[in-house]
Write the structure tokens for this entry.
Amino acid sequence: MQINRVEFCVAQACTGRCKHCSIGVKDTNEHIRYAKLAGALTRWKSELPIESVMCFGGEPLLYADEVCAIFREAKAAGIAQRQLITNGYFSRDAAKIAEVATQLSDCATEILLSVDAFHQETIPLEPVQQFAKLAKHVRLHPAWLVSAEDDNEWNVRTRQVLAQFGDLAVSNGNVVFPRGNALKYLAEYFPEDAPQTSPYDGAPSLFVAPNGDVFGPQGKLGNAYENSWIG
């Protein structure tokens, strides 16, 4: 199995309290510290056919400087795809939103903006719209319940939310699966025997946790903060 992707869980803390979240609320300040792993991506790229880097959370833009530092190294290392998943709500300050949007526009190749009925139940729309307007390479990335075609009340509301972003491109999004908050709050929408595993698990990638631990398809490989080689 060829590992061609690195995924950074920048933080587990989040600005949302979404009913569909597979993780649930994590009140912790632990987050990726780029200064402790600087150079790791460049080393991995020299040994592995890394084509893609993704940052997500929690809400990764609570630590926007760390995200941008990761993407800048990835860009310098020749990693073509640099993706971010964010709910777009990390500040109410217009100047801060503009600053982060500008920084990302120079180093991210795709920003997947999580907007839907679940996120907008607790996240205000206005600062997210401002971020979407200012940042480049943005696509809306909704979560669908049951399927994108189902007409349950959550999906109806999601379509209304998406319409408030005008003609901004929309990805296929994700289908909610029964784990974490989703199993707690949305159990009625899943078959009783539905597997509690993510359909998005198992990709041939390296996963870097906020504490620097690195995992591959076979389990823990080392810790990026300790410069332990993974291989």
